[in-house]
Amino acid sequence: MQALFDQGPPAPCPAPFNLAAYVLAAADATPEKVALAIVGPHGAERWSYARLKSAVLGLAAGLGAMGLPPGSRILLRLGNGVEFPIGFLGAIAAGLVPVPTSAMLTVPEVTALAAEVEPAAILAGPNVALPEGCAAPVLDVHAQRAMYDHAPTGFDLGDPDRPAYVVYTSGTSGRPRGVIHAHRAVWARRMMWEGWYGLTADDRLLHAGAFNWTYTLGTGLLDPWSIGATALIPAPGVLPAQLPLMLKRFDATLFAAAPGVYRQMLRDHPHLVLPKLRHGLSAGEKMPEATRSAWAEATGTKVYEALGMSECSTFISGSPTRPAPLPASGYPQTGRRIAVLGEDLTPVDRGQPGQLAVSRRDPGMMLGYLKAEDESADRFHGEWFLTGDMVEMAEDDAITYLGRGDDMLNAGGVRVSPLEIERALHDHPAVHEVAATEIAVKADTTVIAAFYTGEATDNEALRAFAAERLARYKQPRLYVHLDALPKNPNGKLNRRLIRETYEAAHGPA
Predict the structure, then answer these.
(1) CA distances from 458 to 209, 237, 453, 464 (A)
(2) Which CATH superfamily, name and number, covers 417-506?
(3) At 488, is the pLDDT very low, low, confident or very high (cuts 50, 70, 90)?
């Protein structure tokens, strides 16, 4: 039996359509309900659906008054404040295309990104690096908030297939790639409500990630609002050790985070009393079974994980109605069409390893990469989008994740290309060659490591050099000097051998 799953397409996206209008529809039915609470140890900043919608449409009117051409890109340089979702949805409401970015990006990183985005305007938060040499007008937080009180405009309705937003992900070429998503992408997320979350309008979902991460943006904000639930987001500065208090104090019923956050919480709180919590959600990387078991023992609740990527969000998951049998990550969500492909890019037999592929007809599939048509074409083969993830499909459709088919790294749930890290470190005068890879330092913990040749250099000097050029989550935690880097017969770095050799000599603790 072929490793192919197809239970028919989901309901088509309505037309005309606007992502922001769809996400904020609950403002008409439950205007006074809390849509968003940014929570901290000293309280919460709460926004009702009516207030949120008014601010979004006010900002949309303000952006419209600037005379920006339809479809112009708006660069978001914002932290985890309410300005982020209002800026994101306000731009979309106005027919513009927001480009959220990590607040941790350095000046060189965001300057290179802005040169590609060519933004018509920048929404900026305090203490966030801005691009150099960019002529786009910059609206600080005060200017943005002043627009919230504008007489609201209507939503810009149109073709569901037109671009709605761009999110950046590390490309296999070593350059971050802008993933262009259509307005219909949010409609496709309905398949996750039952297929992963078990989400209802009564839920209070706390997500521990940064707003710019697609996992947080979708799971933490867009999905709860689309169904009329309440989104809870930790305030800037809230540490993982403080999250149990936030979960309990603000009556969270669902919790979403990357596996590393679960590990950090359990390290400080081996026993947790969370009476309102129904279950946890995990994505970004495979959750170790030790972490899953420890969470169940500490809280009495289960964690359901999902497998996906920025180009199509999550499409395989376990759920309360259909938990995944270990060691599987989950099942294809109803409405998806996926396959497991062999080297000849045809479906393998069930139980055989292969590359996970998603139909290009999936309504959540990206439109393509920004200014990278060749790379976009390389990821598609006929009907299939090639994910690079190696999996097996069982007879009952369960999908077991086997790892990446390339050298991409995982930094706290965010994929990072080793080429990007290597290029930054190669500029150091003492470094001749460098290879970045993931190293297991504990049974359930990996870190990014940089192996280099040349002059042996003080690790702190290398860390400071990397900090000037790479966002924190991309910076290696470990630096190892070698006399030579192993390569294959074609002269290509053998990162896997570097990793295996180091781990064999040192071993995870």
Answers:
(1) 33, 30, 13, 10
(2) ANL, C-terminal domain (3.30.300.30)
(3) low
